[in-house]
Design brief:
203 residues; alpha+beta; 6-stranded mixed sheet; 7 helices; 6 strands; 19% strand; globular
Length: 203
């Protein structure tokens, strides 16, 4: 289902295959290369972690977290997931919320995933919905099934970073946003922080 594919697309497994698509041609022409590298380089690193490096009794989340933090903009994703209520968080609460949201996302998807056969991923033509924004569509073939996955990236001072992943029309950030909106309406900042703490402990 989409949860498993989101885990795969989050950089924890998979065999990346650049198909004969417009994205491949764009790379050959050096157009959008930095955007593509933000995704494909991360997959290469992830493959080495998952398949080539010894686990050393560490959970997968601990092994891939440094990689995800390098290519995924968790600060922006947290702000987007919490929504307008973010402005009411103190600087200390904002910092803690980012830490907890990162824990929640990484553990939820990495530790619950059991690597199976290697999926192949073919990328489509990147779209530009706004300045310093890109959306990169892909088709994942995994154990005989095909899934649609879209990466949403933004250009930061550190380069292009993924801030949302949409698997089978389900947005990672949007899914959490819907939950946090209701929690914030009922109890404000403190309720959101409690929910993050409690859900992180459950993962």
């Amino acid at each position: 289902g989409s949860r498993g594919i989101l885990a795969a697309e989050g950089g924890t497994l998979g065999e990346v295959r650049m198909g004969t698509t417009a994205a491949t041609n764009a790379l050959r022409e050096r157009k959008g290369a930095r955007v593509a590298l933000a995704i494909t380089r991360g997959f290469g690193d992830a493959l080495r972690i998952v398949y080539d490096e010894p686990a050393n009794n560490q959970p997968l989340s601990a092994r891939v977290r440094p990689l995800l933090e390098k290519y995924f903009d968790f600060d922006y994703a947290t702000r987007s997931a919490i929504g307008p209520g973010w402005r009411q968080f103190s600087p200390e609460q904002q910092k803690r919320a980012v830490q907890l949201f990162t824990d929640l996302v990484v553990r939820s998807y990495a530790d619950r995933f059991e690597p199976g056969s290697r999926p192949t991923i073919a990328y489509g033509q990147p779209a530009t919905p706004a300045e310093k924004r890109r959306e990169v569509p892909s088709t994942v073939t995994y154990e005989g099934e095909q899934y649609s996955v879209v990466y949403k990236l933004r250009e930061t001072s550190a380069g292009w970073r993924v801030y949302d992943i949409i698997g089978e029309n389900v947005s990672l950030v949007g899914n959490y946003r819907a939950q946090f909106d209701e929690i914030f309406k009922r109890g404000g900042v403190d309720a959101v922080m409690r929910a993050l703490e409690q859900n992180t402990l459950k993962t």
